[in-house]
């Protein structure tokens, strides 16, 4: 993996912050484009791993996963540069526009644009799954696990944090049992 | 003023520590702060949540910056945002360090064997839930279906660019709603 300068890390995360519209999950396709594909600061597997683990630690997911990606790119200072870059946009937006923002919210055009953005976020999410699928769901065991988790998330309101911890336990037990069989 | 700053950093550090998963998990804490300190009114809070949804950046961070600003000005927004990311920052860095340390360990690799499909399933369930909400069969919105299909075809097959997808969604939304 390449090491990057702090200014470069800050800049990239600043750009990502500007494009982060329509909810935190958009961070995954953005990191895939800017960090994995264009700069190779981390691998696709690492992106998926950090995304999963960011769900079960405290904090805002987009923030946590940026700290992880920043660390990959440039150690602890890289993490600082990444999170500073990411939060610069909200800062600038709110400090400059605080007084007019509340009147903008009710604007008809803005409402219509965000109605459209919510639909494009759905498409972004499915494209991201398609990208990450090959490295994540590639055996009988992972297929079954995916289906089980998917159904339980759709049919109940179970917390993602619990799901992630459970699937880690299931996979550990499965690997143990599998090894036991091979040794026997 | 100093007391306000200290309270602000204490309350937002608490949000950072206890909000697990997604920016919306900070909402109950913000309502709690509202009722305890009255730094802002319920109406202001509702408005700030709406604004956080349309301004760029993670929603949780937007809300911290905005509520901090409303409570105690520019310094307040610095304190609130710094406090909300402080503990998660340390935990995230420790987490990556631990992963690096045990990278070659088989136990950790079998954990990842489970985490990766779980991450995909999580994204898929969010996608399906959003899709269901947008294209709800009882309140069938043909305009949403048209925009969805219109965006689906170019962006899933030809060009993969997150910003372009978002922008086209926004423009498409304005156009379709006004036809």
Q: TL;DR?
A:
The complex is a heterodimer of chains A (184) and B (179). Chain A has 184 residues and is mainly alpha-helical.
Descriptive account of the structure:
The complex is a heterodimer of chains A (184) and B (179). With 184 residues, chain A is an all-alpha fold. In chain A, 83% of the residues lie in helices and 0% in strands. Chain A folds into two domains: 6-135, no CATH class; 137-184, no CATH class. In chain A, helix 2 (27-37) packs across helix 4, helix 3 (44-56) crosses helix 4 (61-105) and helix 3 packs across helix 7. Chain A is globular and about 65 Å long. By secondary structure, chain B is mostly helical. Chain B folds into two domains: 2-101, no CATH class; 135-178, no CATH class. Chain B has helices at 2-18, 27-37, 42-54, 59-101, 106-134, 142-157, 162-178. In chain B, helix 3 (42-54) crosses helix 4 (59-101) and helix 6 (142-157) runs antiparallel to helix 7 (162-178). Chains A and B meet through helix 1, helix 2, helix 3, helix 4 and helix 5 of A and helix 1, helix 3, helix 4, helix 5 and helix 6 of B.
Q: Tags for this entry?
A:
heterodimer; A: about 180 residues; mainly alpha; 2 domains; 7 helices; globular; B: about 180 residues
């Amino acid at each position: 993996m390449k090491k990057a300068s702090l200014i470069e890390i800050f800049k990239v995360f600043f750009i990502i912050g500007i494009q982060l519209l329509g909810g935190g999950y958009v961070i995954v396709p953005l990191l895939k484009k800017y960090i994995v594909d264009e700069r190779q600061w981390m691998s696709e597997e690492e992106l998926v791993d950090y995304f999963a683990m960011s769900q079960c630690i405290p904090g805002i997911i987009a923030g946590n996963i940026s700290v992880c990606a920043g660390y990959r790119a440039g150690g602890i200072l890289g993490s600082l540069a990444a999170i500073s870059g990411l939060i610069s946009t909200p800062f600038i937006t709110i400090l400059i526009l605080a007084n007019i923002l509340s009147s903008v919210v009710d604007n008809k055009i803005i409402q219509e644009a965000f109605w459209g953005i919510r639909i494009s976020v759905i498409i972004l999410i499915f494209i991201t799954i398609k990208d990450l699928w090959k490295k994540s769901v590639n055996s009988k065991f992972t297929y079954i696990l995916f289906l089980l988790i998917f159904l339980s998330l759709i049919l109940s309101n179970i917390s993602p944090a619990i799901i992630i911890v459970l699937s880690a336990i299931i996979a550990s037990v499965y690997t143990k049992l599998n090894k036991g069989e091979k040794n026997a | 003023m100093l007391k306000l700053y200290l309270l602000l950093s204490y309350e937002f550090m608490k949000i950072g520590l206890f909000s697990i998963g997604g920016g919306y998990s900070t909402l109950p804490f913000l309502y709690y702060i509202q009722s305890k300190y009255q730094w802002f009114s319920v109406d202001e809070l509702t408005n700030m949540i709406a604004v956080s949804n349309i301004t760029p950046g993670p929603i949780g961070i937007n809300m911290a910056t905005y509520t901090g600003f409303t409570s105690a000005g520019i310094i307040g927004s610095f304190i609130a945002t710094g406090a909300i990311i402080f503990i998660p920052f340390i935990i995230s860095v420790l987490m990556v360090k631990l992963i690096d340390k045990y990278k070659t360990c088989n136990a950790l690799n079998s954990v990842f064997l489970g985490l990766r499909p779980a991450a995909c399933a999580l994204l898929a369930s969010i996608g399906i839930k959003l899709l269901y909400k947008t294209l709800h069969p009882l309140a069938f919105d043909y305009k949403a279906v048209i925009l969805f299909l219109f965006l689906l075809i170019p962006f899933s097959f030809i060009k993969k660019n997150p910003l372009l997808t978002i922008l086209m969604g926004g423009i498409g939304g304005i156009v379709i709603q006004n036809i």
